[in-house]
Structures are given as C-alpha cells and as structure tokens.
Amino acid sequence: MEIQQLTKEIRNSYLERMKVRSPEKLATSWYQEDLLYEGKGKSLFVIVPTPGCSWALGDGGGCTMCSYISDCTLEPIDKNTIINLFKNELKKHLDEIKVDGKEMPIAIKIFASGSFLNPQEVPVETRNKILKIVSEVDQIKEVIVESRPEYVKKEVLEEIFSIIKNKLFEVSIGLESQDDFIREEKINKGFTKEDFEKAVNIIKEIDHEDNEYTAKCKAYIFVKPILTSEKEAIEEAKNTAKYAEDVGVDRISFCPATIHKGTLIERLWRKGSYKPPWIWSVVAIINDARKNISIPTFMDTSGFGSRRGPYNCKKCNKDLKHAIIKATLQQKPIEDYECQCKKEWVSEIKSSNLNKSKTKTKHLPLI
Ligand code: SF4
Ligand SMILES: [Zn+2]
Question: Any idea where the Elp3/MiaA/NifB-like radical SAM core domain is (predicted)?
C-alpha cells in the first residue's frame, strides 16, 4: 500500500538520524489536576521506556502524525530496569498522592509510547509487576493505559483485573477517525472500525459481567489528518465523536494535530501542503460535543499556539488555550470569546474546499 511505503521510508530515514536515549533518560512523570471518572481529582502520568511501537517499527511504518518512536530505545530493555524506573517515578509523587488521596480521587496514566497491552512492547511479566506495584497504592482508584485494539483480549483484561482488583481500568485506543478511508489512507492506522468495535465490546463485556471489575474505554480522535480541509476536519471530528459514543465508548479525547519530527505530516508541512488546525476549529468541536455528546470529552492542548501546533493569532492563542483547559475540567462550552482573527478562520471555512489539496498521496513532491 502506497501510504505505508511512504510512511516507512520517512520513518526509516528519521530512525537513521535519531539520537537514541537510554531508558533512564526516557522515564519521566508528572502529577496534575484532572477530571476522573469519580470527578475532579489528580492524575499521575508516568512514561515507561519501551523499545517502541510495533506498528511504527514494522512494515506498516506507523501512523502519519506520530513520532512516539523518538521516545523509545529501539532495542529490548531489561525487565528489571523498566520496573525500577517505574518505581522511581512513582516514588517521586507518592507522599503527595497519599495526602491528596484523602480528599480526592487519584488516577495513574501509564504510557508506553505505544501499546501497553502488546507483550512485544511491554513484556507480560513487566506489565504485571507494574500493575502489582500500582495495586498496592490504595489511594490510586483509576488505572489508564493506551493500546491498539488488536491487543485488547478478554484473557489479558482478566489477568490485569486479577492484579488490580476493584480499581477502575481504562484502555485508551487511538480510533482517530470513524471513516475507514481516512483512517487507512490519511493516518495509516492499520486497523478497521470492526477491530475497534471488537475491542470496545470486549471491554464492555468485562465491565457488565457479574464481578467487581470496572473496565472502561476511551477513544482518541485525531483532528485534521493530511489532505483534509479545515471544514472537513471539523465535520470528521464531530462525526467520529458521535460514532464513538454510539458504539459504547466511555470517554473521548480529541487530539488536534501538531507537527512531530520524522513524520509524513511534517514532510507535507515543510512543503507548505499542510497546516495544523485553527484553535477556532477546536473551539467549534468542543462546543458541538458539549451539545451533542453526553459522555465526557477532553481536548489535548499540547503544542497550542506554537509554530508546530494549532494556531490562531498571538493575541488569542494563550487565552483560548487556558479557556479550553478550564472548559475541559468543567465539561462546559467555550462561550463569548471574540478576536479579530476569527474573520480569517470563517473565510477559510467558507472557501475550505478551494484551498484543500487534491493531490493524491503518491503524487506528492516529497523529496
Ligand atoms: S499513534 Fe500509536 S499506533 Fe500509531 S505509530 Fe503512534 S504509537 Fe504506534
Ligand atoms: Zn486571535
């Protein structure tokens, strides 16, 4: 498939130049305010070092916008090293978690820069040891991991719950788009809607069974893939949110495009054939979700207002970013905000199909 070849070529040339860091340099964590299933609380984010996403390292070449691979070692890591690094990161925040846990719910988000449930990326023994450590912290009520749908299996979830027992467990899956053509040809995701629905159903089955387990599912939605106009990007994000809710997803997180190194999206951006979305488009998506979607919806604001991220103008970038963060925590719409640059956005939306590139992926002048 052309998109896979192209992504693979770009990925390989980046991997040749990439500076690989040690697991010690890659492990990191931060602790911040968040909206949990139980309400307002705090989340500890821990990045565990891994060799890298199998989809990005394999023949598929990975997704057109993702550079998580640059946060990986590209080679196997000793199991004890990963576990010890995880322990260290948790230890840094444990005192605070214990105090906060008396007043608010606490979640842990364990990110593996790929699929936590893929044994090639996080060996089963390592995964279970990490979860065992988490299970011993009473204050942590919710455990969140990310995975591609093909690794979501009933027996894997049952094994996880046998360790974490009654803590809530959420699998976040990068659905990105409800449209198979967009997901396949513009994002190069490598799985179908059926694959996604199968994973959601496995999670829901466990959740509904007569047991103490609480299993949840979150969908990531990518805002503005390549070769997509501003208007189409908004519509597609709205449609995908509706689809995700209809198939039974519990929460949604929108991820507006930012340009990461060594990706196809970056190649197009450098050639002037791609621009990340306006923050106004993001606002439109949030406000639509508040009206039409009843499950919680989140917005990833990383990269907002930067050269490589969603952008409006210097006057309103920061204000809107803060308004979006606040609106996410409160699950409210963003109202009554005006700036001169809005006119420009409106005219781009109106003429959207005129300035959309019609060039097919295989004909792009990428070299
Ligand atoms: S988005 Fe996920 S599946 Fe796609 S390349 Fe990145 S880590 Fe791998
Ligand atoms: Zn502005």
Answer: 43-288
- Per-domain residue ranges of the chain: 2-265
Residues with CB under 5 A from ligand 2 (ion): 312-313, 315-316, 339, 341
Q: How far is the CA of 43 from the centre of ligand 2 (A)?
A: 31
- Pairwise CA distance, residues 322 & 283, whole Å: 12
CB of 196 sitting under 6 A from ligand 1: no
Closest ligand to 279 CA?
2
Report pLDDT digits (tens) over 125-144: 999 999 999 999 999 999 99
Q: Give residue 365's identity as a one-letter amino acid code.
A: P
Q: Is the pTM of this model over 0.85?
A: yes
Which CATH number, 3.20.20, 3.10.450, 1.10.287, 2.60.40, labels domain 2-265?
3.20.20
Per the prediction, the chain carries an average pLDDT of 95
DSSP SS3 for 56 = helix
Per the listing, tokens 């829901």 go with 204
> What is the predicted pLDDT for the residue at 367?
47
Determine contact, residues 216/209, Cβ cutoff 8 Å: no
pLDDT digits (tens, 9 = 90+) for 181-194: 999 999 999 999 99
In one letter, which amino acid is 245? Answer: E
* Ligand 1 centroid from CA 61, angstroms: 10
How far apart CA 102 and CA 319 sit, in angstroms, is 33
pLDDT at 362 over 60: no
Residues 143, 158: Cα–Cα separation, whole Å: 14
**CB of 148 closer than 6 angstroms to any ligand 1 atom:** yes
Atom of ligand 1 nearest to the CA of 66: 6
Is ligand 1 within 6 A of the CB of residue 62? yes
